[in-house]
Amino acid sequence: MLVGGGRDDEEVLRKLKSMDVDKMENGGGGGEAESPRPAVKYHGWKAMPFIIGNETFEKLGTLGTSANLLVYLTQVFHMRSVDAATLLNGLNGTTSLAPIVGAFLSDAYLGRYLALAIASIASLIGMFLLTLTAGADSLHPPECSVGETCEKATSYQFAVLFVAFAFLVLGSAGIRPCSMPFGADQFDPHTESGKRGINSFFNWYYFTFTAAMMISATVIIYVQSNVSWPIGLGIPTALMFLACVLFFMGTRLYVRVKPEGSPFTSVVQVLSAALKKRSLKQPKDPKQDLFDPPHTSAIVTQLAHTDQFRCLDKAAIVASQDELRPGGAAPADPRRLCSVQQVEEVKCLIRIVPVWSTGIIYYVAVVQQSTYVVLSALQSDRHLGGAGFQIPAASFTVFAMLAQTLWIPFYDRLLLPKLRKITGKEEGFTLLQRQGIGIALSTVAMVISAIVEDRRRAIALSQPTLGTTITGGAISAMSSLWMVPQLMILGLSEAFNLISQIEFYYKEIPEHMRSVAGALAFCNLALGNYLSGFLVTIVHRTTGSGQNWLAQDLNKGRLDLFYWTIAGIGVFNLIYFVICARWYRFKGTSN
């Protein structure tokens, strides 16, 4: 993720490992025999310095650029905090939706190499333009001191800023869905050394990703906040340039997998056939009346007919013999006749939708750590101990990363063995149970956020303040470290919900459609950001005539009530999730 969500990407990428190894070992997504292909020369680790080097510098560049954007928009472009938060939510959402389009274009037309090449150049251009907005005086408003009326950015300055964002979104569309599978493509999945190489590549990938996040959230943000914005943005741009150079230097060594088509084609065929046959009566005996040819795929699990969403069964009704090819084993037109297997695969996707929708509301709480938590930190005492060092406001997301980093090995090594004995299940908590725990923890985090914010505001209004921010808000004497517990609980909720959510998608979605799982996770995050932005807008307009909850100066607002609202929504989301989880029918079960 380019804006405010690197941890989310890390967990998504971790789950992609199982998908890509499985896909590569089995030769792709289809179950039909293919004609022999020319021998592929795998260079393996010889290509890794270029790919891993590219990934390291690219992540340092993009995360270093995006991690501090809220502060940049408010302090350099003099945007109101509510407008900056709304813009950032929209940018986050668009950045998370873009990989869905990028994955489709890569699979169907471009291939991973070309998609990565275009995306890398787009990211470099976007970062260069963003650096120009900080370095060129004509591309940002004049600086203003505390207490002065700050001049707003012009339409031309905003236009350049938005063009930079557009290029960054384009870069995200190609890099996020393609970077890790492209690296795994360089190893031969049919040899033991190739399989070990794939596993090692993923380990190095995670290491560089985590290292890039930590450096971006500390060193680069510190340079941006305390040294210079042009330098702080120029460093990531230079790193992105190095990433592009390394990527193209290894071109002659890369294995380039040709596009194999989109997994959405089968979904469209089932929906089209069911729509065309909507006037037909439901079959009395599905085993006899539906088109169910022998299952020949060694990759995709055969799915038995289920009685849910029976309207889709009409796609498998043989209305006339003209719909079959000679021999009766294949449809003459796949848009008019589909197999029971295809229909059941679409049913799997539809069953997931209610559970998936709970993640949209869940992310409303999660995304606050990159918006209003940062604004609260700016109006708190960020000094560390008695020293003069101040923690950059955007660096507080590190505490959520720390919670995930500590919890995952603790759960796997210490807690899981005990849970297996208690529950009698290999996975300890089921995937749906872990998702529910994550939603509950996010609600608890919002309650704590409301209590801490109320305390921060009370201290700011009743005790001497420590100065004024550049946006005019008084700095409360309350230590910003009081926000650490809520951030760590949010990180813990992500460790429960996000990881199990992605694993749930991969296990429940048919094997050859697993690329949809990554799309679902990104789409979830995107819609969560959009919903958060919509909620901010509604609250701001509703309360703006009186005491604005989301006032520019948080001391004059009631951010705590905004947090209470999100917590209340979280309670309803938890109830809705329990209902969906009890209704859900797992893949391969008839009841």
UniProtKB/TrEMBL annotation:
Superkingdom to which the source organism belongs: Eukaryota
GO MF, one annotated term: transmembrane transporter activity
Membrane topology, as annotated: Multi-pass membrane protein
Transmembrane regions listed in the UniProt entry: 113-136, 156-175, 204-223, 229-249, 391-411, 518-541, 561-584
Signal peptide: none
This protein's UniProt keywords: Membrane, Transmembrane, Transmembrane helix
Presence of the UniProt keyword Transmembrane helix in the record: yes
GO annotation, cellular component aspect: membrane
Subcellular localization(s) per the UniProt record: Membrane
InterPro entries, sorted: MFS_trans_sf, POT_fam
Main location: membrane
Membrane recorded as keyword: yes
Membership in a protein family: Belongs to the major facilitator superfamily. Proton-dependent oligopeptide transporter (POT/PTR) (TC 2.A.17) family.
Protein name, as recorded: Protein NRT1/ PTR FAMILY 2.9
Organism: Zea mays
Lineage of the species this protein comes from: Eukaryota, Viridiplantae, Streptophyta, Embryophyta, Tracheophyta
